[in-house]
Design brief:
The chain has helices at 7-10, 39-52, 68-77, 134-149, 176-179; strands at 2-5, 13-14, 35-38, 57-63, 98-105, 153-154, 161-163. The chain is an alpha+beta fold and 194 residues long. Strand 6 and strand 7 (161-163) form a beta hairpin. It catalyses: D-alanyl-D-alanine + H2O = 2 D-alanine.
Length: 194
């Protein structure tokens, strides 16, 4: 079951970049900006929010549930399995079991420096990369600590990506229609095998 993640319900900032042209495809993928997670992931997100709050930090969510159709769109734009899950295998995002996010200063809303931007498909985006400024390394470690303490697993190549532990086989890959999220444009049709 997917639950909508709203700023009011989860005390997070939403900056759903796939609903804008500010993503690797250069055009909006989602017809509307909405974030959903499986109820198991939503519970862990709430835990992470509670851990960040006393530090004067908020979570800013870039992506959560990603319909299978959207995964095919991303794969067509960047078929690099080091950064984009092959949609034939299924992405934890398409299960509602993953979230892309960063930390922001709660008082000012300023994002913490993470050394690269979201969806920066270079080795500098890997966890533990030491080719970035020490402050950015500290900020990544802080995000990693908050998220793993809340029960999330991380993907080594993307500082922004966190997922439920071993989601494949536990959660189904969902299309927009199957999830009932109405995130995809009406003309979006899943590709063969989606």
């Amino acid at each position: 079951m997917l639950i909508e993640i709203t700023p009011e319900g989860y005390d997070v900032d939403l900056d759903l970049l796939y609903a804008t042209p500010d993503n690797i495809t250069g055009r909006p993928i989602y017809a509307r900006a909405a974030g959903y997670l499986h109820m198991d992931a939503a519970a862990l997100l709430a835990h992470a929010v509670a851990l960040a709050r006393p530090l004067g930090l908020r979570l800013r969510v870039f992506d959560a549930f990603r319909p299978a159709e959207a995964q095919w769109t991303l794969w067509a734009a960047c078929p690099d399995p080091d950064f984009i899950a092959d949609p034939r295998r299924g992405s934890p995002h398409s299960m509602g079991a993953a979230v892309d996010l960063t930390l922001v200063d709660a008082a000012s809303g300023t994002p913490l420096d993470m050394g690269t931007g979201f969806d920066d498909m270079r080795h500098e985006s890997h966890h533990g990369n030491q080719d970035i400024a020490p402050e950015a390394q500290r900020n990544r470690h802080l995000l990693l600590g908050i998220m793993t303490a809340a029960g999330w697993d991380f993907y080594r190549n993307e500082w922004w990506h966190y997922q439920l532990v071993q989601p494949r086989g536990r959660y189904p890959v969902l299309s927009d229609a199957a999830a009932g999220t109405r995130m995809m444009p009406e003309t979006a049709v899943p590709e063969a095998g989606a």
